[in-house]
Design a protein that fits this description.
- The relative contact order is 0.24.
- By secondary structure, the chain is of the alpha+beta class.
- It is elongated.
Length: 99
């Protein structure tokens, strides 16, 4: 079976840290009763891209040795975590505008 590649641990770690780091902008306005809200978290977007790339890198076959059987499932989970962070960064999920 084998252990997880080192990149998987980096992806999981950065994926967790990305929930706690924020560099965001929030803009709201109320014009004639119409409320408008705009939100963007740049740290979540950047870390989401990095985590997604790490997750996708687990799909490649290493040039040496064999690949762990857990590399593909871990890659799927880590890449999905990267997508969640990107969606969170652009305000689609878990943002203050969609409460």
């Amino acid at each position: 079976m084998g252990s997880l590649p080192r990149a998987a641990y980096w992806g999981i770690g950065l994926g967790i840290v990305a929930f706690f780091i924020s560099f965001s902008t929030l803009s709201t306005s109320n014009i004639n009763g119409q409320v408008s809200c705009s939100y963007m978290d740049f740290a979540a977007i950047v870390l989401g891209i990095v985590v997604g790339i790490i997750g996708l890198s687990l799909f490649r076959t290493p040039a040496y040795g064999g690949r762990s059987q857990l590399a593909i499932p871990a890659g799927v989970i880590i890449a999905a975590l990267g997508v969640v962070h990107i969606l969170r960064g652009i305000g689609v999920v878990m943002g203050p505008c969609n409460v």
